[in-house]
Amino acid sequence: MNYGDCAVLYGQLEAGYDTINSTSYFVIPDSTNGNYQNLKNTTNVNVPGRWAFNAWAAPAIFYLFGSAAGDTEYSLTSDEGYVPVSFSIPYTFFDNTYNSLYVHFNGLLTFNQPEPASGPNYNPTRGAEDFIAALWSDLDDYYSCFFSYQQYTNGSVLTRATHDINQYFPQMNFTASWVFVVTWKYGPQQNPAILLQVVLVSGGDLSFFLMNYGDCATISEQMEAGYDTINSIYHFVIPDSTNGNYQNLKNTTNVNVPGRWAFIAGNESGRSFIKFYVSFCLSHIIMSYVCVSL
Questions:
Q1: How far is residue 205's CA from residue 238's CA, in Å, rounded to a whole number?
Q2: How far is the C-alpha of 112 from the C-alpha of 95, rounded, in Å?
Q3: InterPro entries given for it (predicted)?
Q4: Phi, psi dihedral angles at 131 (to 5 degrees)
Q5: Which of 52, 131, 203, 293 is the 20 to 30 A CA-CA neighbour of 225?
């Protein structure tokens, strides 16, 4: 945005930008405080009269993150580093319930303990660890790493999570009571080379998690995306994360939303209820179809 001379005007003025729902916005101060004639001398890039902004935005599937969401933010301070995070509400990951986890700079979430390995131990590992691998690799050796997290117990994020889970697992009448969002960015803070996000969701006896993918730059390292549990009783690997097509993760999905994977993570009773309910609904749909056909 470039400014030259500005004559005296009698009316309200504003210079800046805004977005849908004001998720991103900015007002140039001198445009609204009566000093609009001074705009030619103002700047945010050390060039009088010029303001420059990065219009990059994360894909729409991503939950709001970073400073705009009020996240707790970290940048890489040591190779293979991690940060322990305590939950405000316990989260059930398959057969175990946890009050905390470890967020690793290499795209990994572990529940039991930190994972010292920089690169992936391809699952099923049949080990003693519950983990979610957003994209487990030595990414922090290639790019500066930044991650942020936030947990919610009320507000619009819970509304969005409730809608998403009911869309992917219909007829459940699920209501989210807690959401934890963690996002990794590798490379420039704006327009990052690699962008990943995991969203943990719980409500009642049910828990779920989402994995969101944006762009992924070329990396000459082994990598893996998916999850594994203690003794690998439950495990899953997103195929394109290990076959060399990891740059295509933003186009893959198991819920018909490119770039998003959704999983049930509740305890056995919760998962059994979901499976029974979905099977019950499907059987009644089939029976109804047969009756109508007859």
A1: 26
A2: 13
A3: Alpha-tectorin (IPR052749), NIDO_dom (IPR003886)
A4: -150, 160
A5: 203
Tokens describing residue 87: 């939950």
Is residue 4 assigned to a domain?
yes
CB 235 within 8 A of CB 123: yes
Give the pLDDT of the chain (294 residues) as one tens digit per residue: 999 988 877 778 899 888 776 666 788 888 888 888 888 999 988 899 998 876 656 778 999 998 888 999 998 755 568 999 999 999 999 989 999 999 998 899 999 988 866 666 666 777 788 999 999 887 766 677 889 999 999 999 999 999 999 999 988 889 999 999 999 988 766 667 788 999 999 998 899 999 999 988 777 778 899 999 999 999 999 988 888 788 889 999 999 999 999 999 976 655 555 554 445 444 544 443 343 333
In terms of domains, do 34 and 88 share one?
A: no
Give strand ranges (E) for 153-205. 178-186, 194-203
Contacts of 146 (CB under 8 A, 6+ apart): 73, 74, 75, 76, 184, 185, 186, 189, 192
Q: Taking the CA atoms of 212, 261, 249 and 237 in sequence, report the sign of the dihedral they define.
A: positive
User: How many Å apart are CA 238 and CA 20, to the nearest integer?
Assistant: 33
Tell me, yes or no, whether 44 and 121 share the same domain: no
* pTM for the whole structure: 0.77
Residue range(s) defining the domain that contains residue 40: 1-53
Residue 292 domain-assigned (yes or no): no
Is the C-alpha dihedral spanning 241, 244, 248, 250 positive or negative?
positive
3-state DSSP helix/strand/coil % of the chain, to nearest 5: 25, 30, 45
Looking at this protein, which amino acid is placed at residue 124? P
On the question of a cis peptide bond just before residue 124, with omega within 30 degrees of 0, the verdict is yes
Among candidates 121, 154, 84, which has minimal Cα distance to 224?
A: 121
